User: Fold these one by one.
Assistant:
Number 1:
Amino acid sequence: MANKWFETVAVAQRRARKHLPASVYGAVIGGAEAGRTIKDNIAAFGELGFAPLTAGLPATREMATNVMGQDISLPVLISPTGVQAVHPDGEVAVARAAAARGTAMGLSSFASKPIEDVIAANPKLFFQMYWVGGRDEMQMRMDRARKAGAVGVIVTLDWSFSFGRDWGSPRIPEKMTIEELVRQVPATITRPAYLYQWLRSGTIPDLTVPNLPVGGAPAPTFFGAYGQWAGTTPPSWEDVAWLRSQWDGPFMVKGITRIDEAKRAIDAGATAISVSNHGGNNLDGTPATIRLLPDIATAVGDQVEVLLDGGVRRGGDVVKALALGAKAVMIGRAYLWGLGANGQAGVENVLDLMRSSIDACLLGLGRSSISELTPDDLVIPPGFTRRLGH
């Protein structure tokens, strides 16, 4: 059997593209409208350089930390992403990989696997919630997460409606009917390994979201859930504060890009915030999150845990984020490509790459711990940052 190990996330992406049907890969690659934000999320990391040392380097380096009450072995967490039809085991495979590598994960309320199954694979799990329905429905979803054993909640506020992608949106069916399966044959027959995975599992991607329904209702399809969310009045900060009051553990607000909204999140009771633009799937033209991070971290980093989400593709990106004030980062596409390329082992591969690259950067910078990183470790070009709000 050929060696399935890959040496960078870029290789994982290429392998995932070859392995997955075009529509599945297109859903993962994502990006709104012209893709300005997703491109800037990645390009901005490339604008930052390192300021290395050459002698007196530390013999050992420490990268363990604690985020939202959870001890993790490296400052990289799994970001919640929706229906993971890139592999039959989906979120369960990701949870196993994260547990094997000593880190925590966020589970989307639009995930394809029940929270009970995922948390059995990794108890360091944060349940992510969109505001769908009223307070009663939100309370019931939170109660289920609590009963299942979730150790924290992530409320995501950074998803808006974007219409069209310049490169074309993938065709994703409402559900996998017999007619749809027949329609998918030309696409899947050219991806025999992907087809074999599903045939061997004895299942088909049903594209439902089992963590969203309440009161015994059947699981809606992804697009059905999307419709429920789209028909719900967006939450106010008072709603966020109410939601926080219903949860007595760690509570993250995800989607912060402005200093004033970081402060509002703290006022609402957040114990952590994620500087995020939904991976470029939100309002296209929003600056890269790494450009926004320094001013937000300076303003509120002594009051709340600050994480960064968006554009992280290697351990060097993690180190740059930590040097600019993040406590940890969350990754999305990187692990999905690993999952698509080689299942659970592919996700473990991605996390191993992150770990080894973080370690190499710490060594080159002469830092014995991630806690020692500062902006002085970086070469920051003039005008790099973007300050939103006050």
Note: The radius of gyration is 20 Å.
Number 2:
Amino acid sequence: MRKAYRTDLTDAQWQLIEPLLPAAKHGGRPRTVDLREVVNTLFYQVRTGCQWDYLPHDLVPKGTAWDYFTAWQKDGTWQKVVDVLRTGIRQAVGREDSPSAGCIDSQTAKTTEMGGEAGYDGGKKIKGRKRHIVVDTLGLLLAVAVTAANLDDGTHAPRVLGKLEAADYPRLKVILADNKYNNRTLEEWLRLQDVAYTIQVVTKAQGTPGFVPVKIRWVVERAIAWLGRCRRLSKDYEYNTSSSETWIKIAAIQQMARRLQPDTENRQPAFKYQQRNKKVA
């Protein structure tokens, strides 16, 4: 038994996630990998920003963690876990399983020398990528898409909106957005797709100085701020945008698991600097 990290799943949190992970394939050698440790390793990595080569030796090897990271990305496991945990939280607070309203926004993040798809966001003056996310009115992730930063939010909103399947969100009627989504290309896409929801642009009152949280829509800005707690997301370190999207899902899963089952087992006393008495000359 190793000493627990603060990012480790508690027993209650693991009980939420374990049934959602794929079973071992039939035939061949029995599975020997501890899936709980795989998830613990990825949770540690997303929160601390640790590079693959510098993972602690008492977690699973980087090759094992990467294999499951990509396998569960390709078969939709990460999105499945996001959906189930979100539904659990909605039920816990007395909401319907499927949201009737959502919010959309984007965040621009710098990229590194890793390469891959990237562009220059003239508005934010950042070279990198945009994270387009849609959340429900509780700020819980519905869908995410990552693109080059030079792509217009409204024009390329269909990349994330296209992931909202009507069968999965039968009650969805409106998605709140800011002025970036007052876009003719987006309107044409919505018409051609014949979606059941509308995009409603909501802004602060004219003449109001400074930052003012806009009713309901502020939750998507809070959701983006929550992502900032994960150092792996401080920049976009990935070559493939699909990997970037997966890290955002893993960050959301970590947050939602703790919201459903608050973390009490792995808590350590908060770090405090020692107070030293200063000598007065």
Note: DSSP finds eight helices and six strands in the chain.
Number 3:
Amino acid sequence: MSLGALAVAACGGPVSDRADAPEASYTDAASVLVMACTGCHSDQSGAIASLNTYDADQLRAALLQYKTDVSGTTVMHRLARGYSDAEIDLISAHLGRDDVSP
């Protein structure tokens, strides 16, 4: 069994796929997904850019660029490839802010 399969099995799979999970709302699913982002991209991280200054469209475009860049080898490229387009939409909408200036 691969390491990835073991990790998914240990975690119980995605929240929305678990039989014992309550109906996942937009906010609940997005909150779960963005936990991976905010571990590095927060105001407190210091070394990596905070995502607080980006709107949803900017975040979505950046994540899709990382996902589709076949020659990209950074951590962000690898992480983005693991998300579906629908998950990228949730992440972007949850983290994006409408009240930021360019």
Note: The chain has five helices and no strands.
